[in-house]
Design brief:
Shape: globular
CATH architecture of the largest domain: Alpha-Beta Horseshoe
Largest sheet: 10 strands, parallel
Order of helices and strands: HHHHEHEHEHEHEHEHEHEHEHE
Number of domains: 2
Low-confidence stretches: 70-86
Helix content: 40-55%
């Protein structure tokens, strides 16, 4: 058995002994409601051992070695190793772990990993991960597979997984993956499905283009779409898709509170459409990054006017890099005025 596995088993044994010791101390106490110094010391030691175990259990090499050893010995995985700080993100370099080991880990009955970041993931491996997401044993709620170059087919595989009633993902970062318009459409369709639980999506820098942007906009209008945060920046969606997203923001089913749409060539028309959306009673946006979109002074003025609307809920606006001209000063004046009125808003230009 490796030193890592020995250390883990040793810690688990110590934790079990300490728990028994604590229970004995509690039973020996005459006053069951009094916490003695001995109990405090034992509890403190338990916390220290748990912290030590946590550091071991979330090391990616350990995950591989320990799980392989468990499989080899056909032992049941002790719930301790994954229940401790189970919300902590596990980061795995796929150059150091084979995909079959990871699949077995994520679909094991006692695996409690909730948040996972994968690097150096291949297009074929992401298809295997997509199948894992459909498993009833997989409890992943947050997945970061950004910057892995998974391409259109990988993106469509993930989109299909989002359809599954077993998929529990609430947060997905799939940015910088060369998805293209077709995968964008597939993800847009998935967001409209009844079983999709996604609340946060980062699909930035994926060459979605106008068609991919429109597909995401259509999804935002669906009664089943639960997205509250969307990063669609760097996709060159253009003014038409920008208008489609603005239209979606005004629909009653749209729950979006945070939108990053920077660097998308929205132009003046797209900017004015977003401004109009901000005045809608249905628009829930509290944070908007619309920087580097060639908006120009006309759209800048429209957004400045929108900020005065009683229905505008924005608290953070990043509008830098848009050649607003004198309208930039106007925005800053409005910011000060609104702040003086007690409205919480920050403008970055």
């Amino acid at each position: 058995m490796s030193n890592t596995c020995q250390n883990i088993n040793s810690l688990l044994s110590k934790l079990s002994s300490l728990q028994t010791k604590l229970e004995a101390a509690m039973n020996a106490s005459e006053d069951k409601k009094t916490v003695t110094q001995e109990m405090k010391n034992i509890h403190k030691e338990i916390l220290a051992k748990r912290a030590e175990l946590m550091e071991l259990m979330y090391n990616e090499e350990m995950l591989k070695k320990f799980f392989e050893k468990v499989q080899e010995d056909e032992k049941e995985v002790d719930p301790y190793e994954y229940k401790i700080n189970r919300e902590k993100e596990v980061k795995i370099d796929m150059r150091k772990m084979d995909i079959q080991t990871l699949i077995k880990l994520l679909t094991h009955d006692h695996c409690r990993i909730r948040s996972l970041k994968l690097t150096f993931l291949s297009a074929e491996e992401v298809k295997a991960i997509a199948e894992v997401l459909k498993s009833e044993n997989c409890q992943l709620q947050s997945l970061d597979i950004s910057n892995n170059d998974i391409g259109s087919e990988g993106g469509k595989a993930i989109a299909e997984a989002l359809h599954s009633r077993n998929c529990q993902l609430q947060s997905l970062d799939i940015g910088i993956n060369r998805l293209g318009p077709e995968a964008g459409k597939a993800i847009g369709e998935a967001l409209q499905r009844e079983h999709c639980q996604l609340q946060s999506l980062d699909i930035s820098d994926n060459k979605l283009g106008t068609e991919g942007g429109k597909a995401i906009a259509e999804a935002l209008q669906s009664q089943h779409c639960q997205l509250q945060s969307l990063d669609i920046s760097g996709n060159k969606i253009g003014p038409e898709a920008g208008k489609a997203i603005a239209e979606a923001l005004q629909r009653e089913h749209c729950q979006l509170k945070s939108l990053d749409i920077k660097y998308n060539k929205l132009g003046p028309e797209g900017g004015k459409a977003i401004a109009e959306a901000l005045k809608s009673e249905n628009c829930q946006l509290q944070s908007l990054n619309i920087g580097i979109n060639r908006l120009g002074p006309e759209a800048g003025k429209a957004i400045a006017e929108a900020l005065k609307s009683e229905h505008c809920k924005l608290k953070i606006l990043d509008i830098g890099g848009n050649n607003l001209g004198p309208e930039e000063d106007l925005l800053l004046k409005i910011e000060k005025k609104l702040q003086a009125q007690g409205k919480e808003i920050r403008i970055f230009s």
